[in-house]
Amino acid sequence: MQERPQILLTNDDGILSPGLWAAAAALEKLGYVHVVAPREQSTSMGRSMPMSSDGIIETRDVVVNGRSWRVHAVGGTPAQAVLHAVLEVMPARPNLLVSGINYGENFGTGVTISGTVGAAMEGAAFGIPSLAVSLEVDKAHHFSYSEEVDFGAAAYFTGIFAEVLLTRKMPEDVDLLKVEIPQEATPTTKWRISRLATLTYYESVAPKRTSWLEPGKLDYREAFTPEDFPHDTDVFITKAARKVAVTPLSLDMTSRTDLSELEALLRGMEQGK
Fold first, then answer.
1. pLDDT mean values, one per 10 residues, the chain (273 residues)
2. How many other CB atoms are found less than 10 A from the CB of residue 47?
3. Quick one: angle between helices 18-27 and 152-167, nearest 10?
4. CA-derived radius of gyration, the chain
5. Nearest to 188 by CA among 152, 215, 221, 216
6. Any idea where the domains of the chain sit in the sequence?
7. Spatial distance between the Cα atoms of 235 and 240, rounded to a whole number of angstroms
8. Of 7, 34, 187, 272, which residue is most buried, by most CB within 10 angstroms?
9. CATH architecture entry for 6-198+227-270
10. What three-state secondary structure class fits 139?
């Protein structure tokens, strides 16, 4: 009898996030789900590994929809939660890593800020097929555990693309998939392959304060309207076309420029030409 696939589920919103548990319900149809997630809200941690994290792993029993789950809450970032899961918690290397479902979109160049994507990148660095899933929500819900948010369609697409990663080998240079889902999506919503937007979708806003000695928290806002983005980008497909955007990501962040041409340019500068 073939063993069920071992699935590692994590997120950046924390162990009690309803989005995490919506994903768990979808994934348990595909395999055995190990939930190992940050103990606290860890949005925007990227793939960071702060030495200040305590690394404590708490085993908890959480009841969701009448079912009890044995889960592990980690004192650390999403990427650190993945490391602890793979190196300490799980009995063997997982067949799949899923990060999400996140409250809020993770677009374009913001993927390096996203803890959701950071966790999936950490999984991909282990060679584990990895998936990062985010649901469009109002900004007021970005750091919430709001029960007003409906994760039904996002859970459906989590299951769809998780099954693909469990049963199909991705093409060369596709290390992980990033999925963005419009907030009004249903299981019948169309999906499209997209690329990352290079325009900044969320721009930082300076703190409002009268002295630098006062605490000052950076804010953010939308910098452009969705229609300003190329039509094949994750922003346009999700925000303007209202479709699910599926973006293949690579861990190889080397520029796709002609390297010999770049080398000639740099050596020419070095030699004073």
1. 87 95 95 96 94 96 82 97 97 96 95 97 98 94 87 98 97 97 98 95 92 93 90 97 98 95 87 64
2. 21
3. 50
4. 20
5. 152
6. 6-198+227-270
7. 7
8. 7
9. 3-Layer(aba) Sandwich (3.40)
10. helix
